[in-house]
Amino acid sequence: MFVLVFVYAVSAALLWPASSAQYSSDQCNWKGSGLTHEAHTRDVEQVYLRCSQGSLEWLYPTGALVVNLRPNLPPSSSSSSSSSSRLRVCLKPQTDSQGSMVYLERGGRLKLLLGPEEQALGAVRCFRLDDGALFVEALPHSDIGRRTTAFAYEMRVEEQEETEEGGEHTDAALCRPCSDEEVLMAVCTSDFAGRGSLQPLGEREAPPGGRWLKVSLSRLYRQKTRIFTSSGGGARARRAWTGHVRAPPHCPVSLGDGGTGGGGGEGGGGDYLLTGAVRLGEAWLGCVPRYQDFLQMYRAAQARGTNPCSIDTD
Questions:
Q1: Where in the chain is the domain with CATH 2.40.50?
Q2: For 174-304, CATH number?
Q3: pTM of the model
């Protein structure tokens, strides 16, 4: 019976005409409702998303969705196909997501990505873009109770090997030793950068694939999204900022005072330069040198005139 369901679902996606119902959609996000299918509970919708990140929300799921992720690559580029083959897609369901099974479909074959249990845990699953399209199949139900299948997605070029810890894929490029040039560039281009310290959170709060860390910043140089919040005070650069970041298990940072004792003085012996990326709404540590080491390399580059950008280190 289970195999028959698979065969039926794939056949529906390939042979049945897509419904003409109109939904809320743009290049990045899609939102729709299965109630528009009325009696056509076996309808299959084609969905196209063309951004590097976005979301899908399917209310009262019935039938199925075929989600086609298409990156906006220049059509004239000779490297478009090779760039596409290096793109990696990651999905993160909302913890209240339910009512559907999420598969990867290619050539009429289905591979399960997210079942109900994984969705309830908010488990992240990744795959290469050329592995196939997403096939989201509604589970059968007899009542009209509200169900919503919802997840965020992110596409990025696969430059480093990714690892899998506790069932969750993490980027091996995160929180690793960085060269001086990588550190100086990270200050200018990372999703966030600041000076501060790290504290551990309870083990019960640690998700698969990495631990949560509490961050206290004395300086916030940049943040693309609202990761850290201010407790008030004087000028923006003088405020105290707090927030949470994730670190993969291999992250080689010391917690608390940074392992050097004390946090005062110009060099900030107990501080780190904290940089990183936001992945699927979560902040992950990237290059994390001790602040006194960063200050030394920053001033040396400043004297040579090779800094990619300037920040206030006073």
A1: 174-304
A2: 2.40.50
A3: 0.64
